[in-house]
Amino acid sequence: MKITFLILTSFVFISFLCNNNTITEKKNVEPPGPDTVKQIRLSEKQQRILDGAKKCLHDKFSYDMQMAYYVLKYKDGKYTGSQVYPGGDMDPALGVCVEVTIRALRYAGIVDLQDAIHEDIKLHWSDYPISRWGAKNADANIDHRRVPNQHVWFKKYWNEISGDDYQPGDIIEWDMDGDSWGDHIGIVSDKTENGKPFLIHNFPSPGYVAEEDVLNRWKIIGHFRVKEGSPN
Prior knowledge:
By secondary structure, this protein is α+β, with helices and mostly antiparallel strands. 27% of the residues lie in helices and 19% in strands.
């Protein structure tokens, strides 16, 4: 019974981690503005998030093509042999798009999304699209690893940014297949080309964490920036 549940959960989970490139992507064809990144002095929090994202880039963990459900048994990069909460992680050599935001924000000391999202779901169940996965209870192994759940949490607790005001450390969420649901996420880097920022993200191609010009590759449906003076 347990094995059947895990297989079913894994199947449902796949659609909302990060869509792989076997689906038909609807790319955003609108050209970016000539100057989408402003030269500013980053706050301490923004710099820490950027540094956390750069650590993910340095670690270059591979994209998990199975996009499976995992019991999170790693903590601080070490295997513990049992489920870890809070601070739980999958094999640090692997991940999908959400591992970039999860790990970068942990490295930065900003927030543990596993803890924050899991606890928020328990308190505010109706705020999250849990019904899409048929879940009956909050699950600390998977809740924070779903892009739509990250979308809800960032929208609630960070600043939502409109227009072309991109700054390093911002979180960008995309709808890749035009169904109005987020299915990919990344972090704005400080690397630019012609004023346009690169993103640090993990995607099936090239298959590991990379810093790429993908801002306008898909439709942006979420743009969030950490709040100053708040615990998150």
